[in-house]
Write a structure and sequence with these properties.
alpha/beta; 2 domains; five-stranded parallel β-sheet; 13 strands; Rossmann fold
Length: 320
């Protein structure tokens, strides 16, 4: 895979770089993780004398939708970098983006010399700006995408053991692939929302730990209970590698944040190599001012799970 990091100032100076970012943010803010993660690559290009042209998507529009414009995020990036940026409007306003249309890829590539993919969060998709475009321009992985691959590969393929995988959220069935890929004698899986998942769906031989108690209704918990918090904390404290995807409670409600907060502190205390991912997890940790305490925060939710499960990441293999 060709990396932006390996390009010298001579390679970039005077070149126009088409940069695929992930600006799919409901309410763009200065501290939005995806905006902050985009800055190093843009700054590198500008410092080396190159000109970035930003392309991205936002939401799932059906045709042009002014409320899903990239402009709010672009304004934040311009203020952070102190320059005026050139950009193309939400790619998904054109249905050919989703169709991985080669003609559309050639249209968005006009005037550019180099293509840089720095959008890990959508790299499990096959779209014109991620896959077809690599047949049009010399293609490189951006700084953030490179670090995503390095850190997630370490946690998946070469972790320090014991390894603990904490899986919360409301769509636990989407995370079964991760359990099947990572299960071994030295990996424990702590589940935060197993009450609505049939035990038959869980891999038979994996070291899966289920909640013992919870806060909420009789048949539906909105947070893990004190016994589960203690049990999970004991396991996390001994971990050398931790992967966390999805809060273990309904963290948008202050009444149900205790479990996720306790486990976050246990992970930090363990000093394990720790990866967190998914928008809800990152938003919660950022709100609690704990996000920077983890070794790596992935910009991807579904993409992180797909990568850890060993699924084919089309936009990444397209760079190889």
């Amino acid at each position: 895979m060709r990396l932006l990091r390996t390009l010298t100032k001579k390679n970039i100076q005077g070149k126009t770089c088409l940069v695929r970012l992930n600006l799919d943010i409901k309410n763009p803010q200065k501290n939005s993780l995806r905006i902050q993660s985009a800055i190093p690559t843009l700054k590198h290009i500008i410092t080396c004398g190159g000109k970035p042209i930003i392309i991205s998507h936002r939401g799932r529009p059906h045709g042009i939708n002014a409320s899903l414009s990239l402009k709010p995020a672009i304004i934040i990036l311009e203020k952070a970098l102190g320059v005026q940026l050139e950009w193309r409007e939400n790619l998904r306003f054109d249905p050919r983006e989703i169709e991985n249309d080669m003609a559309f890829a050639k249209e968005i590539a006009k005037g550019a010399d180099i293509y840089i993919n720095d959008d890990f969060a959508t790299s499990h998709r096959t779209t014109a700006s991620l896959v077809a475009i690599t047949h049009v321009l010399p293609a490189y992985a951006g700084l953030n995408l490179e670090q995503e691959i390095i850190n997630l590969s370490k946690a998946r393929n070469n972790p320090d053991y014991p390894r603990v995988v904490l899986l919360g959220g409301i769509k636990l069935e989407d995370k079964l692939g991760v359990i099947q890929k990572l299960e071994n004698a030295e990996t424990h899986f702590l589940l935060g929302s197993a009450y609505n998942l049939p035990r038959a769906a869980l891999p038979r031989h994996a070291h899966i730990v289920l909640p013992e108690d919870g806060i909420g209704e009789k048949t539906k918990w909105f947070d893990i209970g004190p016994h589960t918090i203690q049990k999970y904390t004991d396991i996390l404290t001994r971990a050398k590698t931790v992967i966390w995807s999805g809060p273990v409670g309904l963290t948008e409600d202050e009444r149900y944040t205790k479990g996720s907060l306790a486990l976050a502190r246990a992970i930090i205390k363990s000093k394990a190599f720790s990866i967190v991912g998914g928008g809800d997890t990152a938003d919660f940790l950022q709100k609690e001012k704990l996000l920077t305490k983890f070794s790596w925060t992935s910009t991807g939710g579904g993409a992180m799970l797909a990568f850890l499960a060993g699924e084919h990441m089309r936009a990444i293999t397209a760079l190889e």
